[in-house]
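Objective 1.3, modelling of assemblies. Example input:
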Amino acid sequence: LAKTTQPISMDSYEGQEVNITCSHNNIATNDYITWYQQFPSQGPRFIIQGYKTKVTNEVASLFIPADRKSSTLSLPRVSLSDTAVYYCLRAQGGKLIFGQGTELSVKP
Amino acid sequence: NAGVTQTPKFQVLKTGQSMTLQCAQDMNHEYMSWYRQDPGMGLRLIHYSVGAGITDQGEVPNGYNVSRSTTEDFPLRLLSAAPSQTSVYFCASSFSTGVQETQYFGPGTRLLVL
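Predicted structure (tokens):
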């Protein structure tokens, strides 16, 4: 099962918008794209999920183009507490296929 | 609800010893799974269960056994621990196996095998 590809790390400053792009060239027709957040010494936590176009919730926005070969997680106005690892996943039934994740560091 | 709970939080084993990592959920979820996370890496699926009495292998099942006798519990057994099994283990659950289901993760068990 092919995994997703995303940048290993990103730096940002408080108040900025952060966009993390994920590549999933071999996505299957029935796959959803799901993003999880993980803080140190904790289990991952669901952020947002989408199939196509744009999805927005109280935490983030997710943009998926028509060809679905990539997706972009957008975090508006990040704070220090958003420092974490962000995983872009393919969701196949109950299986979550994790890649390496993007370690986001938010600086004051 | 307590959500997904895992015990113990931390364990040290010697090579060849056996132990069981416990996982329980009180959300009446049908789907449960076990992942391991090695330093600097994402999580890898070990075993999963779509309901009581049903289990299947994930990406890295070797060296691990599971059973699902009740909906609430999904223990992970290491029959003969090896240093390569040093990792952080996470249990997760979701209401069903639908592609849009959110999975809820436990706090993890840190295992060190000497």
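Residues 48 and 57 of chain A are 7 Å apart (CA to CA).
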